[in-house]
Design goal:
65% of the residues lie in helices and 0% in strands. It is mainly alpha-helical.
């Protein structure tokens, strides 16, 4: 007895597969970029901004939570 109704009920979730596919493609593109020699060169020279900006944005989002 949990007191919250039936335990076997599953929540209804709707997924927009077009947006999910776009997000997956963007993620794969960024991962491929991170594995490239160009990313390593830019990171060592200090001129890499794409991944750095994403990481900074993630840190600020985590601080707000």
């Amino acid at each position: 007895m949990s007191g919250f109704g039936e335990e076997n009920k599953k929540p209804k979730i709707t997924v927009n597969y077009d947006e999910l596919n776009k997000l997956t493609k963007k993620y794969k593109r960024l991962k491929k970029y991170m594995k490239s020699p160009l990313y390593e060169i830019k990171t060592l020279s200090g001129t890499e901004t794409v991944i750095t900006n994403l990481l900074k944005e993630l840190e600020t989002d985590e601080e707000l939570d």
